Amino acid sequence: MALNKRDQLIEKAQELFYREGYHATGIDRILAESGVAKMTLYKHFKSKEDLILAVLEIRHRTMIERLRERASRLPPREALLAVFDGLHNMIHSTDQFCGCLFVNAAAEYQDREHPIHRRSCAYKAELQTYLRDLLEQLAAPHPQQLARQLQYLLEGALSMAHIEGPGEQARDAKEAAQVLLSAAGL
């Protein structure tokens, strides 16, 4: 199925922002590589920042839908641990792993009140809520605290894979997550 022009822009922008950074990727480069005219870009987006927000929103929605779909098929404990398997697959799914689209955005737009920084935070908050909800289904003690701890393992594995290059970071984090869950009686 052919992508419409808006989707072409978003797809190419996501690829370039991920690989090269938000500030380093110019609109002209996105237009040249997507084959979309400048007038079409501005028909859909008022600015480059609006395009970045659209990229982050779509990635946010895609990731959360993927997690929820998996959780609908698995018992809660398995769904929690499957997040680490998904991270391992993500780390190894590309020739050039460049970390997290959301962390990278927050790093480039450091003002916590900036809409791009807030969009990145919203994804991370929803990920934490997803983890907490699964822990609540398991009747975990202190589910919010444990959700944060599991997220720290995820984020650490993600960051280290970016720094070191793809390896066993997510699998190591999964082993640590299993220890945390066992210590919580889960």
Plain-language structure description:
This protein is mainly α. It has helices at about 5-20, 25-35, 40-45, 50-75, 75-90, 100-110, 115-135, 145-165, 170-185. Helix content is about 75%, strand content about 0%.
Q: Could you report the average pLDDT, rounded to the nearest whole number?
A: 94
Give the helix tally.
9
Identify the overall geometry.
Answer: elongated
Question: Structural class, from helix and strand content?
Answer: mainly alpha
- Percent range for helical residues? over 70%
Question: Low-confidence runs (pLDDT<50, min 5 residues)?
Answer: none
Strand share of the residues? Answer: under 5%
Query: How far apart are the first and last residues' alpha carbons, in Å?
Result: 44 Å
Number of DSSP-assigned strands: 0
Task: State the major sheet.
Answer: none
Radius of gyration: 18 Å
The sequence of SSEs as H and E is HHHHHHHHH
Keywords:
mainly alpha
Brief sketch in words of this structure:
The chain has helices at 5-20, 27-34, 38-44, 48-73, 76-91, 101-108, 115-137, 143-164, 169-183.
Task: Describe how the helices and strands are arranged.
Blueprint: H1 5-20, H2 27-34, H3 38-44, H4 48-73, H5 76-91, H6 101-108, H7 115-137, H8 143-164, H9 169-183
